[in-house]
Design a protein that fits this description.
This protein is an alpha/beta fold. It has seven helices and ten strands. It has a six-stranded mixed beta sheet with strand order 6-7-8-3-9-10, with helices on both faces. Strands 2-1-4-5 form a four-stranded antiparallel beta sheet, with helices on one face. α6 links the parallel β7 and β8. α4 crosses α5 and α5 packs parallel to α6. The termini are far apart. 40% of the residues are buried. The N terminus is likely disordered.
Length: 254
């Protein structure tokens, strides 16, 4: 039987994202600058950095949520400024809950991820409804499809957000702290979802403080500090980088 993920992931080859000397910020002020980064189809990247380092500004720049101030940015070969189909980039925001005073089922929340793919006046088609069910099945919530999201746990609500981002079949999935604020058991379930997505060739950028939860999933780590990329390499190389930084700090304090 074919996994639902196979219908949702959009495995790609070649360069999905290309950034050259890119800068992003707010109100004309750069927060992160001189970013050179390329992401190949199927890669899973962890974006690390302390609070205020610029990592969230960087990923929000790819989404048009912070200003692209200079440099080159391409998505699947298309300049970011002329990218019309924004559903090619899926986004899971850093939200701990979905409760906001409006009653909605998991199915209804996930279906909002398709609103940008059709005219507002056209009702959902059978294939849209099937995509919503596939997305919920992919994140292990097929049995919660008709549940009010307010009745779901924090980890389950986070998975609903992942399903909402997946339903339009993006080329790349950007997630902001997907495992933060949930218990260890929920982190393990979320990690399993990401593992499954990675195995199907889904390209992912995961902003995180909790690299341990993503061990074995991440192919590459990018570190942002003080508005600059300070590391880009494999998890093993990053461990060496951390040791070198700690040794340098120790020598400086001596």
């Amino acid at each position: 039987m074919t996994s639902p993920t196979a219908h949702l992931s959009r495995p790609t080859t070649g360069q999905v994202l290309e950034l050259h000397r890119a800068a992003f910020g707010y109100r004309g002020r750069a927060v992160v600058t001189d970013v050179d980064l390329s992401v190949t189809g199927g890669e899973v990247l962890a974006v690390l950095g302390p609070n205020g380092s610029g990592k969230t500004t960087l990923v929000k720049g790819l989404l048009g949520l912070s200003e692209h101030l200079s440099g080159e940015v391409r998505v699947m070969g298309t300049p970011l400024a002329t990218l019309r189909d924004r559903t090619r980039i899926g986004y899971v925001p850093q939200r701990h809950t979905l409760t906001g005073g409006v009653r909605a089922t998991a199915t209804e929340v996930v279906a909002t991820g398709l609103l940008a793919t059709r005219p507002w006046w056209r009702p959902a088609r059978a294939q849209d409804r099937a995509a919503v069910q596939d997305a919920l099945a992919t994140v292990g919530l097929a049995d919660r499809a008709r549940f009010d999201v307010e009745t779901l746990s924090g980890g389950q609500q986070r998975r609903v957000l992942i399903a909402r981002a997946l339903v339009a079949r993006p080329d790349v999935l950007i997630m902001d702290e997907p495992t933060a604020g949930v218990d260890a058991a929920s982190q393990a379930v979320l990690a399993g979802v990401l593992q499954e997505l990675g195995s199907m060739g889904t390209t992912m950028l995961v902003v995180t403080h909790e690299l341990t939860a993503l061990r074995g999933i991440v192919d590459r780590i990018v570190e942002v500090d003080s508005g600059h990329l300070t590391f880009d390499g494999t998890p093993d190389a990053y461990a060496d980088h951390q040791r070198d930084v700690a040794l340098a700090a120790g020598r400086g304090a001596a």
